[in-house]
Each structure stands twice: as structure tokens, then as C-alpha cells.
Structures
1.
Amino acid sequence: MLPNYASPVEKLWYWTFRLVCVLVLVFLMSPLLAIIPLSFSADSFLVYPIKSFSWRWYGEFFGNGEWMHSLKNSFIVAPAATLLATVLGTLAAVGLTSSNFPGKSLLMTVLISPMVVPVVIVGVGAYLFFSPLGLTNNYLGLILVHAALGVPFVVITVSATLSGFNTSLIKASASLGANPLLTFRKVVLPLIAPGVVSGALFAFTTSFDEVVVTLFLAGPEQVTLPRQMFSGIKENISPAIAAAAAVLILFSTTLLLTLEWLRGRSERIRTAKA
Amino acid sequence: MNAPLTAADGEPLKKKLAREQRLKQFKAIALVAPLGLFLLLTFLVPITSLLFRSVDNPEVVTALPHTSQLIRSWDQRGLPSDAVYSALAEDLARAKTDGTLADASKRLNMEISGYRSLLMRTARKMPLHVAPGESVRDHFIQIDERWGDPDHWHAIARNAKSWSPYYLYRSLDLRENKSGVPELTPVNERAYLSIFGRTMWMSLWVTVFCMLLGYPVAYWLANLPKRQSNLLMILVLLPFWTSVLVRVAAWIVLLQSEGLINSGLMALGIIDHPLQLAFNRTGVYIAMVHILLPFVILPSYSVMKSIPPSYVKAAISLGDHPFAAFWKIYFPQTLPGVAAGALLVFIMCLGYYITPALLGSPEDQMVSYYVAFYTNVTINWGMAAALGSLLLIATLALYAVYSKLVGTDRLSLG
């Protein structure tokens, strides 16, 4: 990148710039890299250096009723919220991109707003509104609000995929005698699938990582994994948290790789079309 | 050209087209409607009801309905008439049995401390037995002389309506004086203006740090060959996808006094006793910048990717110094996109709760913390709703600016 006739000042600037960038990337990765080894420490405190290796804290995490209960709850709430957000969000995105109608941009702004409204306000609002309806301390209330928080991501990703969608395919399908439902199922959905799936992944992590709304809406029965970690960090931070963190990092790495693979796939489809 | 074009069935084409377009619009709206309805019920209505709750003031009207009605015609001078005192006697006798007194006395205690015990004490003496010709007022003043103090009656009068700006005023460190005009509370009672100020200030600094660290990285990644930049991008995306609680836990591990950073610095001999990095402002800034940095890097990266490198090359070949070329040609092109990213980060900062709550001291808490505190700990929903409403208004105003600048239909994720 740097030509060999560069002056010393230019060289210095170039290497300083690179150093800064590398340091920022180190800053971004350091917490993840720091906590994983500690989960294998036999020590009862989360401190370096690690004296001996052990699976003890993983045993603690996977053998403990509270942690497992919260993990189970997260795997009840997040998929349900994801399903709801994905179905409603995809339909809405199809509607929003198919035609112009008055108030469309305002509607889009409203549909995206759960992303920017402070979560505490969503939590307190839902708590005060849902408690007379009996929707606090149960799964349904939590799933509904988590789905609302995940909706913007689905709407954004699916709309983005649809904006590159060639609408003459729909016309072709219709001219060949398919009804709109069949066209959607056989033509539109397979082509926008990468967008739908990545929106769903965003919605899933939103719910899977959500703690503030859960603080307000969940009873002791509905404690989710982040909620359990929240009280764990607040009360006493034990290495079982490091084990939980390591499991979650592994999980998010899997999600990220899936997403990157999907992105690559949809890019290939787009370039193949062009 | 005068005859309108018609379709095969003789109908004007224009009319047919318009009908077709209406049908298409209708279908589009029908597809958006389920989501609209869903968000209305789970998101918009709860938040709107929170806004209403910030001016909701039902306690006194519910517990003391007759008094509230009569006191509205009081001229606010001297003491109210005997009729108001008898209405209060009647209301208190009823309120102590139907359980509404507790809420009302809690509410009036916010106006004048000691009001709770005054009401409880007076209610115990109810019902009042007043001989004909005796003054009810004298009986009340005999029970407690504070019933002869107009200020205690002004407090009831101010709350004799079912809505009040009290909580909103309190959230801005204001309070109504006797003539109903808001004025700043005494200095030692002020709290919320500085909390709002602190929230803005911390958000501003986090945004600035994110820009300073994020811009160079985005520039570097955007100008690297695709294979390398994709690989390095993983290092940005992986923390982005990792649970916020995992990251906060990890930062506590790194920053605590026995943590990796302190022990590392001590081993290198740079410091001889641990620095206080966690559970103060430093810790909150570090973790918040860490969480929000990808939100600067990702949009900046996609803006920079779309800028053709030939402009800067042209400027340099025309004799500009590379720094000048960057500053005059490249930077202005990135500015709109990067500024929009910064605004989004600032908006997200305003609502932060978890990170300051886990990594900060009481002096580092932002508005959200107090909303949660008043909801869960002191159960003062009026105050929670008022602080929440002001935070919401600030956020939505900035979000409106953001969507004007960017256009929400152009929003993309990474």
C-alpha cells in the first residue's frame, strides 16, 4: 500500500494509523478473549493467572437447576418471539415495497421505532399496561414484547432484500397462471429467504439478549438466561458466569457465521442475476 | 386524441388503471395491517398510556370526592368554608374504611411532608360528632392545628383534579408555587435536571469516543483488499453479536482491581497500586464505547465503500498533499453518512440502563435507571412515567431528525 518513495513522515503516519486501527480491533475482541480462558480455571475467583485447568464451572453451569431453567426459558421465549416477528415483519415488508400509499414513510418510521425507543420505557409501559390484563409474570406477555422489539430488524432486512427484487418475476409467474399465494411461496420467498433468515437471526438475538423488559415482565418462573446473568453479575460474580459467557460466545459465533454464509449466498444470487 | 382510450370492454383505460392501482394499494395495506395492529397493542398503546400516566393524579379525587368538588370553588384566600371541612370529615370517614386513604395520604405527603400522619390521625377521629351551632372547622383545628394552616388546604386544592403536571414539573426540578406558576425548587432539592444533563453529557462523550475510534477503523477496512477486510470485519461483528451481559461481565473481569489490566500494568511496573477502573465513570465509558463502536464502524464502512478512490487520487495527482486531499475531498463525502451514524449512537446512548447499572457508581446512572428505580423500588409510577415521558420525547425528537436526514427506508443493518 505504501509506495517506497514515501517520506519518513508519511511512513510514520501510515504505521501510526495502522497501529491505532489494530489497537481498536484488539479493544473490541479483548473482553471476549479474556473471559473464555477463565471459564476453564479451577479457581473460585475470576482472576488471572490461571493455576489449573478444570471443567468445574461448566459442570456448575450445566448441572445447576437455575441456570438450566433460565436457558430453557430463553429457548422458549426467543424462538416464539422470532417466529411472530418474522411472519408479521415479512408480510409488512412485502406490503411496504409492493405499492405506494399515503403515509407510507410515516408508517415505516413507526414500524422501526421499537429499535430506538429506550428499552426501559418499553418495559415500564408494558408492565403498567399488561399487569391489569394478567400478562405479567407469564410467557405470553414476554413473547409479545420481545417480538415487538425484533420487528424492526425483520422489516429492514426483508425490505432491503426486496428492493433488489426483480418484480417482473412476479408478473411472469402470474402470466403462467399461478395465484398470488403460489407465486409468493414458489417465487418470492425462495429469493428473499436470505433476507428473511438474517432478519429472523437479528430478531432472535434481540430476544435472546434482552434483559430490561424481562426485568419488568418476567416472574420467577420466566427468568431468562440474560436475566439470570444480570442477577449473577449484580450479586456475586462467580466463574459459572464465565462458563455461561463462553457458551454464549460460542453460540453467537455460530449465528454470525450462519449470517455471513447467508450474506455470501444472497450476494451470489444477486450477482448471478446481473 | 379527444376520445379517451378504452379497454376491450369499452371502459376508459384511465378509470380501469386507477381501479387497479387502488386494489394494489389496498392489498399492500392489508399486508402491513397485521403488524401495525400488533405493534399498536404491544408497543404503541402501552407507551401512550405511560405518557398519560405522567399527568395522571387520581388519588385525592378518589379518596376525597366531596372535598375535591367543594374546594374548587374556594377563593384560595384564608381558610375554606365550614362546608369544605364537613365534606372532608365525611370523605375521611368513608376513605378509611374503603382503603383509598393510604394512596391519598402518600400523594399529599409528597406535597408537604407530615401530611400522611396528619390525615391518618384525623381519620382515626372520624366520624366527627358536631353539636348544632358548633363549627366543624374548630373541631378540626382542635384535632390538629395544621388544619388551620392554609398551605395544607392549598395542597388539597392543587390535587382536587384528576390530572396534574406535578410529576412532569418535578422531573424538571420545578414546583408550582401558591399561584400555580412553576418555579425552580430550592437548590438542595434539585436532582433531575442534573440527571438529564449527565445523561446527555455521557452520551455525548461516548459518541465522540466511538467516532474517534470507529472512523479510522472503518476507513482502514474500506480501503483494504476485500479478502482481508472481510476477515478483519469478523473481529468487529463478533463482539457486536455477543450478548451485552457477556461483554459487561468480561469488562468487570478485565477492569476490577485484581483484573487483567491492573495486574498487567503492575507487573510492568507502570503503577504500584491498582487503578479504579470499574464501578465508576471510566468503566461505564469503556463498556459503552465497546458496545456502540460497531454501530459507528458498520455504517461508516458502507458509506466509505461507496466513495470512488479516484477522486482522492485525482486531487493528489493535481498536486494536493495526501492529508489535504483526504480532508478536502474524502472526509466531506463521508460526513453525512458518518454523522447519521453518530446521531444514531447518541440516541441509543440516551436510553442506556444495563451498562451503567452494572458497571457504574450511583453517580454514573442515567435517566433510565431512575425510571426503573421509581417503577420497581419506590413504586412511584407517576414519577417513573414523567421521567420516562421526557426521555421518550427527547429520543423521538432526535429520531425524527435522524429519519429526516437518512430516510428510514434507507436504513440498513451492517
2.
Amino acid sequence: MSLPRPFILELRCPVEMSILSWIRGVIAQTAAALGLPEEDLSKIEMSVDEACANVIEHAYPDPPEEALPLTVRVEAMTDALRIMVCDSGVGAGDLRGAVKSIEEYVEVKRYRGLGTHIMQRFMDEVEFVQSPGEGTRVCMVKYLTPPNATVGSA
Amino acid sequence: MKTFEVDIRSLDSSPDVRVIALNGYLDAHTVADFDRCTDELIAAGTVKIILDLQGLSYISSAGIGALMGLSQRLKKDGGELVLLQPTQKVFKILDLLGFTRIFHLCDSEDEAEQILRS
Amino acid sequence: MPILPLAPPQFWSVTTLLVVIVAAWIIISLLRARIRRLESAIAIDTQERESVLLFLHRMGEMATNQSDLEATLEFITEFIIDETGASAGAIYLHDPQSEVPELRARVVQGLFPPLRPTTGYVLTKRKYLHDKVKAERIGLGEGVVGHVAKEGEGLLILDARAERRLPTEAHELVPLESMMLMPLKIREEVIGVFAVVNKRTHGQVFTDKDMSLLRTLADQAAVTVKTVQIFEELTQQQRVESELRIASDFQRLMLPTQMPSVEGFEIAAYCKPALEMGGDYYDIIRIDESHLGLVIADVSGKGVPGALIMSMVRSALRAEAPRRLSPADVLRTINQRVYEDTRSNVFITMTYAILDERAQTLHFARAGHEPVIACPTGDPNPVLYTPDGIALGLTDGEIFDVMEELVIDLGETDLVVLYTDGVVEAMDEEGREYGQERFLDLLHRQCDRGPEGLIQDLLSDIGDFTHGIPQHDDITLLALRRRREAHVIEAPLRQGQTG
């Protein structure tokens, strides 16, 4: 039994670090209900967590006017899962800050840029779209392998 | 679901080794609590830490960053950080990203103690 | 009926009944008046539409004949005087030579008065009168013409004798009764003013209906005048290259400035004109509260004539779309006009689709245009729809009228894409074409991307393919899909804090 696709879910959240566990919980449950492979579940959960943490940390230097300005939109299609994390703030960085490898992360010893690295590593596509005055939209895609197709090495 | 709890004790056999048991999840929210706790231990002179991860359900980049920072500080003071028995989920995250090659991971407290003694 | 001092229940009910009858009678009369007003409004619309279509038809003829500014202005003036039932008219344009903003009459027809105070010459011959009017320099804000040019709004003068902004001499030369003035505007820029005086039928004055017609005609005239004007200012040598640029600027002017928001559907469109050729355009027309017309077209003619034909087709389509809910019928009607106007030296390929928002369907017909592509839900292979139909302007009658109409169920479709050949014919440095196969392959992979995302992906893929080779043809895309309803969950505002 799994949710019929296309299935679209939109979460509206406050910009508070304490909401992250709730977001992870909903995303994990949704991904499981969609019948996504076990392999992908924690990757998706973690990528969303990183994207949201990024927004909460950077996008709102001043308290936002709206109560729930952080939106997580999950679009589950037949062949792909698209996740958009959108804010209306001043921007949540971009992929330039991402470390290229774990070796770089360890050697540089600044311990920054791991979140975006994780998003790129765990998802098939990651894109930061920034429009002035409209905040940032992080789009992430995970392509889904049809259940009966042969799976190569992950 | 528990959010995050820290339980600290010393090893009977090696009183200078502190065991920190983490319960719940270590993410961008709870990492502040973790940092506060380890800061206190280091300020009190602790250099050898076993991080018991049996109760840790999740770790994010912020959590990994905190572990990296802690490990570095302990090494600088001549100490070491050892991770004990991560849950399958946490192990998988660390493994997928390549951190299992960077941290000392142990299956038992005895093994961890051995590493910290050497 | 006896009226009792103490009213029994029957008495009240009779009164109530009377009140109800009177109220009903009033409401019915009001409704009747409203219906009559609506009916006359519809009649006006029909008449106005006919005028506009005729005007466009003539404009099309002039465009294909490459007429000069003088002839264009003469035509416009004559046409507008005729259609508004005026006895005289003049077209004032900004004088490019003068340093301060000034308007001068370029064409005057009929008994039209000078609008600045004169020094009392008695002007009897009409020719001298015209020369006098043309010699006047009218400053911005000066008199009625200057006022209209400055404010950018039309002016209806019902009693010219009471209008203080008209000089007294004007009445001596021409007995003025009523007058209409309308700015010639392109978007917000006023390029001139059109003025007509006195109804031909004695004793009548201009009405709101005349104003509305004048406004529509002036809007059309403004675009044509501006284009011909720019074109004329250039030397022969400059013309060739500039013509293309003007046409492409003009083309941009034709495109919708913003997408209408349609509840329940996502629509995105994109048009990138190429410099050296092409005459693509798209349009989105609100037909009624539940139908939306979607157009994508490619005009074969280059430069200014092509651009004017495009404008003509666009206006004809905008006028015709609200009258018919069959795309094939609309294309047949448009073809009739295009064929008559362009005398077969220009042809246009077009797909016209009607989105039925309630039924969630897309009915469409195509006139020699590229296929319509749809990605069915749950099927990875995009479907090409190629209904029969030949390009507009090539032929008329029976051969053209064989036009097939197809329908797509949007409830069962992830995405529908309309495009022009510039997409599949984009070339790389070795002259290879992007091709339909690569296009379909991208659609196959990205069909759930949504209209906006798909257009972005496609453009970047074309960019990857062409490797920076400048495009030689316009690239135009229009995509839509049913808006997917999201299940919205609001997060609990306060999470338990950790200690």
C-alpha cells in the first residue's frame, strides 16, 4: 500500500531550529508512505533537514513577519521526487559554500559547508534559485527507479 | 519521541575517561546543548571521551561538525574521541559520507577503553 | 374592501401582497432596463468590432504595400472620420524637429478649425484652412490638443461653444458643435493626438459609443504610425538592418506583458526573437469566465511588413476569440481575413487552443504549425498531436476549411507544450539541428517539471546543444498543466524545548 502519485504535500513552518525534528518526521513518514526504497528514505530526510536548517540559520536575521514563512513542498511524481524548500528571507546561501569532499571538510577544519555537500551527495539534483525580494528556493530532485527495473550500484 | 538527552559518567577502570551517552537526535537545534556539555567537560580537564551513540537516532551535518570540533580539541590536548556503537541509521549516514574512516568507531566499551589507553 | 380600525390578519396579508407586487414590478422594470442596456451594449460591441476588423484589414493591405507615413496618416484620418460619423478630423503628431515638446497637425481633412488663437485672417478656402491648421505649433498642455497629449486621456466635448480651451476664432471659421480628442498611445507613451469635429448628421453630437470606437481605432493607429514613423526616419542604408531590429522590438510589444493567473492551472510562456528572421508570437486571451484562448504562431514575412501582419492577426484573433468556442472555426475566420489582406505573400502557421477550465480539457486546431505535445500521466512517452490543417494565408475556402479539432483531457495529462520550429531547428556550430528527438527525450525525462521548470530546462538544454551559436530563428514556447493541489500541513508553532 502506498500513496497514489502524483502526491503533493506542503509544510508551512516557523523559522525555529526546534521545528526540524517535526519536519524530518513528516518527510520520513511521507517518503515511507510513498513506498520509496529504504535506501533513499534517510537520504531524503537528511537533505530536507539540511536545507531547512540552512534557511533557519541564515535567511532571517530579523524575526519574520509571517508566522510560518518556511515552506517545504514535496512533489511525488511517478518517476521523481521533487522537494522545494522556500523562504521569503534574505537568502540562505548557495552551493558555492559547499565543500567538494569530506577530505576537504576534514582538512580545512572550519567544519562548514557540509550541509550543502550532503544535499548534493544524497539527491540527484540540487539547485538554489534566488530572486531578489522573494527569498530563496532550494530545489532538490531524487529520481525514482521503477520497482521492477534493474538497479545498478548506488 | 525524546528530543535530546545527555548522560555523563566516568569509567570505573579508567576514571579519566568520560562516557557521554547521547539519547535522541543531534541536529542543528540540539547541537547547542551538546556543545555546552562538552565545553564544560573540557573546561574541567577532560581529554578522553567515549561517545555512546546507542541511543542516538539521528545526526545532521551540524552534529557531525560538533563531533569533528570536539575530536580536534581533544587531540590538541593529547586526548581522543571514540564513538561507541552507533545505531544503524547513524552509522549509515556516517558511512555514506566517509566519516567512518575519520572517527574511531568501536563496538564495545572495552575496545574503546583500549584505544584511549594506547 | 372595508378598512377596519383593527386590522385582521387578512388585511396585513393583502398589504404585504401589494407591497410584494409593487416591489416585483419595480425590480422587473429595473431588470428590463438593464437588459435593454446590455443589449445595446452588445450591439455597440458588434459594430465596433466590425469597424476594428475593417481597419485592420486595410492596415494589412497597407503593410504589404509598404506605404509611407503620409499615406498611412491620410488613410487613418479618412477611416476614423468615416467610422465615427465626423465631418472633419486631424491627426497631430509630436514634432521631432522642435526642441520643446510640440504637436503639429500632419493630416487635416474636412472643415477643421485652427485650435490656436489666430490674428484674424479670413480663411475661406479649405486648402488655406488646412495649411493654417498644419502650421500651428501646439505646446504640451496648451488648448484641447495639448491637454490630451499631456494627460494621455481622451476628451469628449459635447458643447464646443462652451469649451473655454477653444479659441473664439475657431467658432468663426468652423461652426463647432461637438468634438472628440484621443491620444495616440503606445503603452504609456503619447505620440500624438487624433481629433474629430462635428457629427455629419446635423443636430447630433458625439456619444460615449463614438468615444469607445475612437479609442480602439486610435490604439491600433498608434502602433502603425509609430512603426512607419521610425522606419521613415532611417536612411535607405540603415533601413535594412534597422528594419529587423524595429520588427523585433515591435514583436516584443505584441507579447503579453504578464500571464493571467488561472485558478487550477499553471501556464508559462517564453518567446526569444532572433535578430535576422522570425515572426513568432504567443498570446493568451480570456474568452469568458471559464475559457481561455492560447495562441502560438509563426509569421513567415520578415521585418516590418511581417510585424504588421502579426499585429493584424493578433488583433483579429483577439476580436474573434470571444465569439466562438471552436478553435477550428476561429482559425477559419482568421484565415479568411488573412488571405484577403495579405494576398498570399505572407503566411502564418498557428496553433489555437481553448482551455476549458471547468471541464479541464484543451481543444485545439492547428494551421500548419508544429505538433502539440502532451505527456500523459503515468506514461513516460510524450504524445504528438498532429491534427490536419494548413497554414493561414495560403488559400481559402474548402481546402483550408478541412481543419481537424482535437481534445486533450488535462486531468490525465502531466504537461502540454506548444512550440515553434525555432526550438527544434536550433543549430550547433556544425549546422546540426537540436531536433525533435532530443526535445521529446527531454520531455520524457522532465514531464513532471511543471510549465515554468520545463521551459527553463529546455532553454538550458538548447543552450548546451548550440554552444553559444546565435539563434537564427525565434524560439517560442507555451506550456500548461493542471495545478496540482497540495495537501497543506501547518507546523505546530511551538515545539517542546530541550533542556
